[in-house]
Amino acid sequence: MGSREIKSPESLQETPATSSSHQRKKLSVYFIESDNRRMALGRGYTGGTTPVNVHGKPIADLSKTGGWIAALFIFGNEMAERMAYFGLSVNMVTFMFYVMHKSFADSSNAVNNFLGISQASSVLGGFLADAYLGRYWTIAIFTTIYLAGLTGITLCATMKVFMPNQDNCDRISQLLGSCEPAKSWQMLYLYTVLYITGFGAAGIRPCVSSFGADQFDERSKDYKTHLDRFFNFFYLSVTVGAIVAFTLVVYIQMEHGWGSAFGALAIAMGISNMLFFIGTPLYRHRLPGGSPLTRVAQVLVAAFRKRHAAFSSSELIGLYEVPGKHSAIKGSGKIAHTDDFSLCEPADVWTRQLWN
Q1: Are 211 and 135 in contact (CB under 8 A)?
Q2: Where in the sequence does UniProt note compositional bias of the Polar residues kind (predicted)?
């Protein structure tokens, strides 16, 4: 499992320069191509064959992994996350107003913060999955955080110690704002578990759909068909989760109280987590490829160092080609060469020259 130095095919033939008297050479590629791929959670490197199992080892028999059976375990996780997301966004303002005795303005602001954290943190989750943890471990970690937050919210709606005194607090008193307000530590607890729940979405939303797509073989002739059907069912699960949150969860709240409504969301997330982990032996994994920020920084540094270099002054002309079967980026697929975009070649040539 070593690495080998590869030189591009016969590409050193000199060609006449179009704007100078000296000869200009084609770009040749010297680089170390490695079959190694980085394993998740810093557990070293493994062979370049993908997909791999949860331990980072190549899968010998792909017929025993992936496919629709593995995808079914993944659908539930997204459905439960959508149920919790919409269930909290619909009910939390009312809960804070009627139970915690906060104003509508403060309640709406807290829920907006929850929604903002859920959306913005997805960038962090996607980065960690692609660069370091891999999609499976990112989902596993953050879905557990999500469940912990939902459990904390359920306790807040169930145990009286986390709620202000509800005695002599009828609808008129609530509307007039004369009910006993929640103590500062009670609101701190509620805000903490609510925002933990929002942060838990960071590793679910950006990773579940792509992790489900990883379960299908790219080399199969039916790959595109399977992928289209998968995303149809995936977004169906999103819609079903939203419908359940808008109907059934609201019904449970009206008939059985806030603790039962939020508890139903926690139970649904707990069941989806259990199913997700049960399906672990069936999953196909793509190993992370390292931080993309490093590669972006390399381009910026090279561009700055060559900022005064003129393209016409270079003795080399051509495009960098990466030979071999694997991408130079660990864990990533290689984009095949194409001549279909020849009009873009001059700009691309100038960009590639930065690396000389």
Answers
A1: yes
A2: 10-21
